[in-house]
Amino acid sequence: MKIAVDAMGGDNAPQTVVAGVEHARDEFEDTEFLLYGVEKEIRKYLKNETRITIIHTDEMIMMNDEPVKAIRRKKNASMVLAARAVKEHKADAIFSCGNTGALLAAGLLIVGRIKGISRPGLLSTLPMIGTEEGAFNLLDSGANAENKAEHLHQYAILGKYYAQNVRHIENPRIGLLNNGTEPHKGSKVTQEAYQLLAEDPNLNFVGNIEASNILNDAADVVVADGFTGNAVLKAIEGTASAIMHLVKKAILDSGLKGKIGGLLLKSSLKGLKEKMNQSQYGGAVLLGVKAPVVKAHGSSDGQTVYYTLKQIHTMIEGEMIPDFVNYFSQEHAASKTKEQSI
Amino acid sequence: MKIAVDAMGGDNAPQTVVAGVEHARDEFEDTEFLLYGVEKEIRKYLKNETRITIIHTDEMIMMNDEPVKAIRRKKNASMVLAARAVKEHKADAIFSCGNTGALLAAGLLIVGRIKGISRPGLLSTLPMIGTEEGAFNLLDSGANAENKAEHLHQYAILGKYYAQNVRHIENPRIGLLNNGTEPHKGSKVTQEAYQLLAEDPNLNFVGNIEASNILNDAADVVVADGFTGNAVLKAIEGTASAIMHLVKKAILDSGLKGKIGGLLLKSSLKGLKEKMNQSQYGGAVLLGVKAPVVKAHGSSDGQTVYYTLKQIHTMIEGEMIPDFVNYFSQEHAASKTKEQSI
């Protein structure tokens, strides 16, 4: 398999990207990497070229570029070239730590939607910090600012296949993010989505889930409209970071006694930090397009880049995309037949 | 002033309610309390009847009652009688720890909307745990499942007066909860709301605020549609509680060394817990109705009930409601004149 890598995206690119790619290359012997970016810069950090091809380009998309314009105008940007390689079947997936909006636009406009899918959604993986272990997927976590109930139904199916093929959960529990647990709760969109999910015999639908309970093993896949999903994701991240900062500060400000206490607790608190570290679950994946389009955080280190490439490897190996294509082409055909017979 | 109290709402009612009322009664010599509920039960805990009147009723609204039905059918429920006392000007505000949906319905259907306000919103106060100190208000935090841009504009005005009259912030910064900071970001509703807020010369509008930054002193009042506001509020509460649980567990599971560390840190961690404790800010307030309708958490202790009654006292003393009425009646008249002149 081949993974197209935007080597220039991210705060510490291309250094951290190259480090992560080399780590993944050493682990996955069946995988080649196409690195798009400034050759001289990439070579500064590259130790070994085995199964790594550099495709030189000077152009790149900046973090403050307007996404759609950037994709259309910067035709030779590292991200655009990487996406085009996927479109032209020269690579099986694209990875970037760069501008999220631009990568979503590249996914939609260059890689392209799978037939039958209206609105691809962004899937994030979060640790279930309310429980002993485990994680859950949230989608759409921000690809769309507005969604209809039928989109949420498609997210449930996309999330189900992701959880099965990548996380190896046999029968993933699907929940609907809502402002109450009762079936009649919520907006028009969530009320309609509840019906669609409840009536679909292929889904293990466990009902509405409130944001207060999302970290407590309530479901394996939580479906939301992109606006709310994004807000909840950011609220969780912001709160976790604020509290960890407070804990640290409480230790530092508490005099000698507290500092000794902090030292004695160092390893436990480190374990806690690791538990909350999302990087082991890889990046955010745009689901519903013809290949994995995967975004890691701009501040990703080499380890996070490696984990995300590993996640992409699992997606390709698990044949997630062919599963999507099959399902939605059948759905598409079935709904066409249905329309014709009416 | 007089406060109507639903003595039967909450997990430990009427005990905790009575304790909080007596504490508030001892502090605020200008205030009388009307307690609605089972007289025998209330008397069990009441130490001193000064400025406290008990109005006996056997009926009450349960936590799982369907809100609107309960308000309409249980005409003698403690909550309904307390709301009716406000409607009939026998009291200036209503307090309850009971069924939130029912209290919102009582506010809308019995106390009634202020003229010119389309959709009253629920205001919550949260600590800015990302900073040294301070708090912010979030509204609508869940009274509505759907909102239009003009409702969000009204929430900004309601929130502004609340922050001025109750929190004594001279020129409160108003932010709009959105999925990006740039003005063009978001859904149709948030894009339109951005324009309305930016164009209002009476508002100190500071722009879009992402949920990741909401705890970091980004604004004094954050305006949101009720669906997203509710989801973000619950995500913050759920994450905070999950992490504090993890910190506790990390200490307990870390052997003797960690336990000693935990003991040494006990007072610092207690300070942290207090910082995150929302009860000192009082309860959630339905704004846009003709009197303060205030909800404290079902699990509130006497101290929280006291803080919430203190908050109500400040609202009445600060003449928040007359300010609302003035503003919106002028707005209403102005928009009528404008309509006629077109």
TrEMBL record, chains A, B:
Which biological process, per GO, is one annotated for this protein? phospholipid biosynthetic process
Q: What is its EC number?
A: 2.3.1.274
Protein's recorded name: Phosphate acyltransferase
Question: Signal peptide position in this chain?
Answer: none
| UniProt cross-references to InterPro entries, sorted A to Z | FA_synthesis, Phospholipid_synth_PlsX-like
Biological function: Catalyzes the reversible formation of acyl-phosphate (acyl-PO(4)) from acyl-[acyl-carrier-protein] (acyl-ACP). This enzyme utilizes acyl-ACP as fatty acyl donor, but not acyl-CoA.
Write out the entry's keywords from A to Z: Cytoplasm, Lipid biosynthesis, Lipid metabolism, Phospholipid biosynthesis, Phospholipid metabolism, Transferase
Q: What is the lineage of its organism?
A: Bacteria, Bacillati, Bacillota, Bacilli, Lactobacillales
Q: Which GO terms describe its molecular function?
A: phosphate:acyl-[acyl carrier protein] acyltransferase activity
Which gene specifies this protein's sequence?
A: plsX
Report the source organism: Liquorilactobacillus capillatus DSM 19910
Main location as per UniProt:
cytoplasm
The pathway that the record names for this protein is: Lipid metabolism; phospholipid metabolism
Does the keyword section mention Cytoplasm?
Answer: yes
What reaction gets catalysed by this protein? a fatty acyl-[ACP] + phosphate = an acyl phosphate + holo-[ACP]
The family assignment reads: Belongs to the PlsX family.
Task: List the subcellular locations.
Answer: Cytoplasm
In which domain of life is the source organism classified?
Bacteria
Q: How would you classify this enzyme at the top EC level?
A: transferase
